[in-house]
Amino acid sequence: MLLVDSHCHLDMLENSLLAVEEAKAQGVGHILNVCVSLKDFPKVLEKAKEYTFVSASVGLHPNEQEEEPSVEELVNLAQHEKVVAIGETGLDYYRSTGDLSWQKERFRHHIQAAKIVDKSLIIHSRQAKEDTLHILKEENAHEVGGVLHCFTEDWDMATRALDLGFYISFSGIVTFKNAVSIQEVAKKIPLDRMLLETDAPYLAPIPHRGKPNTPAYVVHTAEFIAHLRDIDIDLLATTTTVNFFRLFKKANNHV
Questions:
Q1: Does residue 252 register a pLDDT over 80?
Q2: Domain total of the chain
Q3: Is the N or C terminus of the chain more exposed, i.e. has fewer CB atoms within 10 Å?
Q4: Residue 93 to residues 61, 96, 106, 160: CA-CA distances in angstroms?
Q5: CATH of residue 233
Q6: Mean pLDDT of the region 82-86
């Protein structure tokens, strides 16, 4: 069984070396180390460079308060061969309030950069369903595609994102008892459009909920969804791994 943790933050873990070794022992064959802060991008990239099976992204999270990156800056940072994605980027109306035109502009810049470098997008969307979908459509984000990471929305958003050519990624949240609507989406979406992630060190799945998350725990999310869909976990693991490398084409060089 070969799994991929399609979204985690190795540079935020207390012991990234131990986390990587534990993940390998659980059958995790590739890890995407995702950037949320441009000032921390050097650390994100350095972690990816330490391991052949770790890739990186470059982006500025919608809630981070930093100097706004230009399209050109994002394009330049994305040139390294270890950078396989742009993001995470998107909209978050839960943590940010007031006039959020700056957040929308930041999102657009990331999409434009992704199209220039031909690298897929990692989308963060929280309480911003309509604006997220509208900007993805208006900016022709389907040209590079991407994933709605840590999906917590409803079936309507899932189907509309799928129609735009995007993938849906599930974190440990799907294992929580109160995550009924997310579980419904996990049951219904086409298996060939699903990814798995941890978002470590956040959102540890049951039976580790409340503890620091780690890439090894992606196996618990995989087991839960396989049971939910009544399919063999090897099928789920194989398909989601194939999906990951289909979406993040540049990551194939680092397996």
A1: no
A2: 1
A3: C
A4: 12, 5, 14, 20
A5: 3.20.20.140
A6: 98
Mean pLDDT of the 42-58 span: 96
Longest dimension (CA), the chain: 47
Average pLDDT over residues 19-44: 97
Q: Give residue-wise pLDDT tens across range 107-121.
A: 999 999 999 999 999
Distance between CA 225 and CA 175 in Å, rounded?
8
E strand segments, the chain: 3-8, 28-33, 54-58, 83-92, 120-126, 146-148, 167-170, 194-196
Structure pTM?
0.96
Burial of 39 (0-12, 13-18, 19+ CB in 10 A): exposed
One-letter amino acid of 23:
A
Rounded alpha-carbon distances, angstroms, from residue 66 to 54, 55, 161, 202: 26, 24, 28, 22
- Residues sharing a CB contact under 8 Å with residue 44, sequence separation 6 or more, in sequence order: 9, 10, 11, 33, 34, 35, 56, 57, 58
**Domain assignment of residue 60, given as a range:** 3-254
Angle at 234 between CA 229 and CA 235, to 5 degrees: 55
Give the pLDDT confidence score for residue 253 in this predicted structure: 52
